[in-house]
Amino acid sequence: MPGDTTTQKGSPTTAETSAKGAKGSAAATTFITKAAEGGKAEVELGNLASSKASSPDVKSFAQMMVTDHTKANEELMSIAKTKNVTVPTDLDAKHKSTRDRLDKLNGAAFDKAYMADMLKDHQTDVKEFETASQSADPDVKAFASKTLPTLRHHLEEAQRISKQVASGAAASSMGASPGTTTPERPKGTTKSSGDAGKDK
Fold first, then answer.
1. DSSP characters for 164-197?
2. Does the global pTM surpass 0.90?
3. Hey, what long-range contacts does 32-36 have (CB within 8 A, 24 or more apart)?
C-alpha cells in the first residue's frame, strides 16, 4: 500500500543515525582544526606583509587579514574549547614553508608572491566554509555562516590587488601613465623653432 511504503522507506535505524552523528562530529573537528591552522597563518603572514609590502593596497589588505582573522580565531578557539578539540598553537609545515619563502622576498616581488598566496588560500577557504555552513553541528554551522561574507570580501580584494601587483598597475597608477612623459626642457627655451637659432 502507498501509505506503508512511504513510512518504511526513509526511517533510519539507530545505527544509521549514530553513524551519521559520528561522521558529522569528525567533520566538525577536522574543520575546526583546519580553520584554526589557516586563521593563524593569515595573521602571521599579514604581520609579515605589513612590514615588507611596498604597495599601499597590499599593506592595507595585510592589516585587514590581521584584524579579521584575529577576531575569527578567537571565536573559533572558544568553540574548540566547548567541544574539547585541541587546536595547533604553531604553524603547520605548509604554512611555515610559505612564511619562510615570503620572508626572503622584498618590494614588488614580495607583493606579487604574497597576493598570489592570499588569492589561492581564500579560494580554498571560501569553498571549505561554504561546506561547513551546511554542517550538522550547530556551532560550526553558525561560525562558518557568520564568517563566510568576510572571507568572500577578502577573496574579492585578493583578486583585485593580485591583478594590480601582477601587472604593475599598483605602481604605475601612482605616477604618470607610461608614454606620456616628455623630456625636461631648460627654462626659456619655449620659443618657436624659427626663433631658436637666433638666440645662439
1. HHHHTHHHHTTSPPTT-------TT--S-HHHHG
2. no
3. 32/76, 32/79, 32/80, 32/83, 32/85, 32/87, 32/140, 33/85, 33/87, 33/88, 34/128, 35/76, 35/128, 35/129, 35/132, 36/73, 36/76, 36/77, 36/80, 36/87, 36/88
* Chain position carrying cell 608572491: 113
- Are 158 and 119 in contact, with CB atoms under 8 Å apart? yes
What Å distances lie between residue 176 and 112, 169, 172, 180, 185, CA to CA? Answer: 22, 11, 7, 7, 18
Q: What is the mean pLDDT of residues 111-130?
A: 97
pLDDT value at residue 180: 39
Top CATH class of 28-82+89-171 equals mainly alpha
The residue to which cell 574549547 is assigned? 81
Residue 169 has pLDDT above 80, yes or no: no
pLDDT band at residue 167 using 50, 70 and 90 as cut-offs? confident
Asked if residues 141 and 133 have their Cβ atoms less than 8 Å apart, the reply is yes
DSSP 8-class letter at 198: G
